[in-house]
Amino acid sequence: VQLQASGGGLVQAGGSLRLSCAVSGRTFSSYAMGWFRQALGKERESVGGINWSGGRTYYSDSVKGRFTISRDNAKNTVYLQMNSLKTEDTAVYYCAMSRGSTSGPYDYWGQGTQVTVSS
Questions:
Q1: Which of 16, 49, 63, 67 could form a disulfide with 34 if both were Cys (CB 3.0 to 4.6 A apart)?
Q2: What tens digit of pLDDT does each residue of 71-95 get?
Q3: Cβ atoms within 10 A of the Cβ of 105, count?
Q4: Could you tell me if 47 and 59 are in contact, meaning their C-beta atoms sit under 8 angstroms apart?
Q5: Hey, is 4 helix, strand or coil?
Q6: Alpha helix segments (H runs only) across the chain
């Protein structure tokens, strides 16, 4: 299975980015998906997740109200729309797949995409 995250880049504080994660090699619609991030020198943290149908999502408190996770099962892709970005959102963002629920465990991981938010 391959998870290919894309869409990262450099953006000013207050701006927006949309990350994509394209999945191949598995029945995408059977898996819950999650987004995680890891800032330099910090532990990886959960950003949020979405269930297999897209009908249920969760978000960490740090991004709630600013980030939105969605998925298109026809395109085998999950998205992370990030609005009102803050400098503390700077991190490498990873997507992951879970055969269970959004609570994990997560079985497959993408390679990560860098998001840098400047002040």
A1: 49
A2: 999 999 999 999 999 999 999 999 9
A3: 9
A4: yes
A5: strand
A6: none
